[in-house]
Amino acid sequence: MTIKLVGIGGMGLMLSPSSRHLKPRGVAQFLRIHDRGTKDDRRDNCRQAWKDHGADLVDDYETLVGDGDFDGVVICAGKNGDDCNIFRSLVPQMQRNKKGRPFILHLSTVSAGFARAAFDFLSAGGIDYGNYPLTGGPLGAENANMLILASGDDSIYERLEPMLQTIGNPRYFSASVTAGAEVKLIGQLMVFNGLVGICSAAALKSECFQEELSGPAQADFFDFLNGGAGGTRQWDVAISKGVRDNIWDQGFMIHHAVVDAIYAAKLCRERGLPAMAIIPMVSIALTFAYLLNKYEGAPLATHAIVREMIQENAPGLDQFLNQNLSYVDVDASINNCIAVLPQRVRDSVMLDIDKDNFTP
To answer: Quick one: pLDDT band at residue 106, thresholds 50, 70, 90?
Structure first.
C-alpha cells in the first residue's frame, strides 16, 4: 500500500531528491509540497521534479493539510527555532482536519530536547512523531545513500522503512524518541573534530613550506597524507574543495553547522562529559560565529575556517576566542557562543524548549 504524504522543505537539498527516487504510486507518494516561492534555477528544477512525481505545489499550510487526505507530514527544514514556528502553524491545521492518527516524520537536525518536547506535545494531540535526522550531505541525498537515523515507536519505523530504504540508508537505534537526534550529534563530534584536524594541517603546511593554501601541489600532498593514520573524510568532503579548487562557498554551510556544533556541545554537557570533549565543540562553534560576523552576508562553508588559521589571520580569531571561551566555565562558553551569533542564526538555536513552545 502506498503511503500518502505531504511535505515541508521539499525545495531543500536533502528532501528534494526524493521526488526522483520515489516513483508515483510506489511505496510512498507526495500529494502536496509546500513552496515558499523563492526563485532560482535549482529550485525551479525541484519544482518540475515534484510535478513529475505527481505532487501539487502549495504556498500555505491550510492548503497543504487540505482535508487530511494523507498519512503523514514530512518536515525537512531548519533548526529548533525555525521548526518550532512551523509546528505552531501546522499542527492546528492538522488537528482540525486529521483523519485517524497521522504522523509527522521530522528529518531536520534538532536538539534532543526538541525531539522530546515535540513528541510530548503531538502525542497529547493524537499525532505520532518521529525525528529521523539525515547525514551524508546533498550528494548522499542525490545518490539515495544518505544515512537516516531513526528512533522512537518501532511500528512507525516498520511502516516507513520501505520508503526510507528508497531514499537513503536507514538504521533504527532504539525506542527512545531522542536517540536519532543524539546519534546525529555524536556524528557531528566526528565531523567537526576531523574538520579542525585537517584544517590545522593545511594551515601548518602552508606556513612551514611558505605556500598558498590552494593549488595542485597542496591537493596532491593531502591526497597522499590523508591515506595515513591521520586520515579523515573531511579532506574529501570538505577542505579539498578549498585546497584543490579554491572553492569556499559550497559544502556544509556555516550558518547551519554552527547550530549543530552548539547542540553537540550542549548534549555532551548534559551527559556529563569532561570539558576536554565539550570545549573543542564550543571552540569550533565560536570560530563559525567569528566568520559569520567577519564576512557578514557572504556564503561560506565550514572548511573556510582554514583561512583564519594561517599566521596572518590567526590573531583576530585568537582574540575573539579569548573573549568568549573558558575551560573553567563551560556553560558560560556555550551561552557566549549563542550570544555572539547574528540574530537570524541565534533565533534558530532555541536551546531551552518544552511542549508549551509549540502552542500558537
So the answer is: very high
